[in-house]
Amino acid sequence: MVSAAALRLCLTHQTITVNSSFSLQDPLGGITLFPRVTRASCSAQRDCEFVNPLSESSFRKEDKITVVLMGYKPARSHNYLQLFEAYTAMRNTVERVVFIWNNLEIDPPPVPPDVHLIRASRNDMMNRYALTKDYPHTNSILTVDDDVLLSEGLLRCMMIQLLAHNTSIIGLDARSVEPGTGNYMSRPPTLDTPVIIIGKTMLMHERVHRRAAEIPDALRKAVHRGGVCESCDDLVMNAVATAASGVGPVQLRHNVWPHVRMRLPAPGGVSSTSNWYGPEGRRSACARWLFQRFGDDGLFRPRSVRKQLQCVD
Prior knowledge:
This protein is of the alpha/beta class. Helix content is 24%, strand content 24%. The chain has a nine-stranded mixed sheet. The protein has a three-stranded antiparallel sheet with strand order 11-10-12.
């Protein structure tokens, strides 16, 4: 393995140097490129659809994206610097970057002037939705984890779907809930299974995002430490959005350069802990509790766009 090699990515109009590592198992240093699917094969299969990214011209301010990052771990300070640099450079697509620091004991890493810093008064996973309600923002809000970096082309592909499905959550990673049992399934969903867009990348209209600030205390407290939905804020947001709109989310598969996502280091990730997946895992318990709370067997629904969406250039 070659450690800390420089991977030069054309993630915006500029060429940005990102420190990564390469190995035989991960030759692209954290980037996954799916096999290219031709339009002919897509049409023949009738199970996929191409999405052309929006043009490179600037959006109106209200049509751009507000990127919301949330941090806690000082060990990820280098990630934050990379993310700030990349997203603030996407001026045609990103209007502002909001950084929420959830660690009450340690000061946040250096934050550039063009990044809006919010210091939370409580370490709460719901902060990345609720704490932005009093700040001016755009119609589109992306909550994204601090261990991934999305290219500008990929953001624009996601925006196309949000413009068409503005009551749905748009995301890159989907999981399913087993009908009848409510068990959370860690494998990708089929076309007919209830779908959840996980919190790693969630793009939503500000009306959907705002609902987090209006949820009952019981839902908010369920996400707190020791609650039935501890660290499962994404399941709560999927439930809130789907219950309000009656439609499922939209999943977009990124597979053609430069519409890619890069993995960054993720020390101390919550999903790496025990008792997370499986029928008796924390996420299954949360999903079942949400079914009971909302009293609707159709709480999590199949995705809005039944075909496999693929981002192309």
